[in-house]
Design a protein that fits this description.
The protein is built from 15 helices and eleven strands. The protein is of the alpha+beta class and about 425 residues long. The strands form three sheets. Strands 1-2-3-9-6-4 form a six-stranded mixed β-sheet. Strand 7 and strand 8 form a beta hairpin. It is globular, with a radius of gyration of 21 Å. This is Cytochrome P450.
Length: about 425
């Protein structure tokens, strides 16, 4: 699954001067209050801070809005091909972050004209998705999921709803059946790859994902349909099956886990913030405003790894050496006090970095499709269960430990049972 390229012995290491005072990303405090860590890092180091990844591997976390925007706008300085990394000699094959950084022939790691070619195929394949039909499909999926628990008067929305709906929508758009053992295994393996819990093996899970998508591409090569996979196979760019497999993994992963967290984080906001409701369905502020606020304040993808410095350069007052890993702190950038005077963070604009920026941002129209899925999921649930309330106190809700994804362990709710 990985090709790390030429592994060099040039390793700055956690103890070098450049990483003096580096903070480990992770831990209980980070899990519950990442914003506090971002504030402390800003105070100590400025807009770019030295951090330690799993196994005390050094990297740079970019906290500033302007600095993240600069990195994503300058591919000639901060490129996506991870084979540049100067730490490969220190990385074990089973490193938990290998699914994120191990070089693969996917659109994520391409550069220049090759990236534009691959991203162009994805864009045209996604443009073929009828957004009105997607909304209708998502409403139908939502109705089916809600019917499975509506009569009980209680539900755990993260797994029973927020996680399941975008999963079914994503695989359906790609031409897979939205139900069945193979589909459920695919989604579980994607979750482990992106957000591994204790005892999970993200590397093995990612390998299984690849095997399932290979089978899908093989089937669609023989029998085309009105789906993303078939459109990619028929595109004039003539991508190989291996290239399409890798890019489909990227599409499905981006559509499923982040969108699930977007839905659940929005429901949490609606159920816990009095600005949005006397009752949830009668709120003074809209679902659209809640969705937007979550992208600013609880963005589903907190941090993104990464970019690799092409040559020695300065960023945010720090000397970044050639081959250093740069982590995009999307959540930190969205709450950068430099863009929010007087500590006021609003949701009035769409200039957040939750879908990144620059040439490697989420390709159009992916953010629009994610919005259709998330908005339909939230609105349908509120229509069907208008008196829904949290089944626990808000402070009892806990966040998953991932430093990459921002999502709850569970969102338990209660409501008046509805007989279907």
């Amino acid at each position: 699954m990985t090709d790390t390229g030429s592994r060099t012995s040039r390793t700055p290491g956690a103890g070098c001067p450049a990483h003096a005072g580096a903070v480990r990303l992770g831990g209980l405090e980070y899990q519950q209050t990442p914003a506090r860590l971002y504030r402390e890092l800003r105070r100590e180091h400025g807009a770019v801070a030295p951090v330690l990844l799993d196994g005390d591997i050094p990297a740079w976390l970019v906290l500033g809005y302007a600095e993240v925007s600069y990195v994503t706008a300058h591919d000639e300085l901060f490129a996506r091909d991870s084979r540049r990394w100067n730490q490969w000699a220190n990385i074990p094959e089973d490193w938990p972050l290998m699914p994120f950084v191990g070089y693969q022939p996917s659109v994520l790691f391409t550069e220049g004209e090759e990236h534009r070619r691959r991203a162009g195929v994805i864009t045209q394949a996604l443009e073929g998705v009828d957004q009105f039909q997607l909304s209708r499909d998502c409403r139908q999926l939502a109705d089916q999921l809600i019917a499975s628990f509506a009569g009980s008067g209680q539900a755990e929305l993260m797994n029973m709803y927020a996680h399941a709906l975008p999963m079914r929508a994503a695989v359906q758009m790609c031409g897979m059946p939205h139900a069945g053992d193979a589909t459920h295994q695919l989604v579980e393996d994607l979750r482990i790859s992106l957000d591994a819990g204790e005892g999970d093996d993200p590397v093995a899970a990612y390998m299984r994902v690849g095997e399932q998508i290979q089978q899908l591409v093989k089937e669609k090569r023989q029998r085309h349909g009105p789906d993303i996979t078939s459109r990619m196979l028929q595109h004039r760019a003539g991508l190989t099956d291996d290239e399409i497999v890798q890019d489909l993994i990227t599409i499905i992963a981006a559509a499923q886990q982040p969108t699930a967290n977007w839905i659940c984080n929005t429901l949490r906001l609606l159920l816990t913030d009095e600005r949005f409701a006397l009752s949830v369905s009668g709120g003074r502020l809209s679902v659209g405003e809640a969705l937007s606020e979550v992208l600013w304040l609880d963005t589903p993808t907190q941090n993104f790894i990464g970019r690799w410095a092409v040559r020695d350069t300065q960023l945010g007052g720090q000397l970044i050496r050639a081959g250093d890993c740069v982590v995009l702190g999307l959540a930190a950038a969205n709450t950068d006090p430099q863009i929010w005077p007087e500590s006021h963070v609003g949701a009035e604009s769409s200039a957040h970095l939750s879908f990144s920026s620059g040439e490697h941002r989420c390709p159009y129209p992916a953010p629009l499709l994610a919005d259709v899925i998330a908005r339909t999921a939230v609105e349908t649930l509120l229509e069907r269960l208008p008196d829904m309330v949290l089944a626990v106190e808000p402070e009892e809700l806990s966040w998953r430990p991932s430093v990459w994804m921002r999502g709850l362990h569970a969102l338990p709710v209660e409501f008046t049972p509805v007989m279907q």
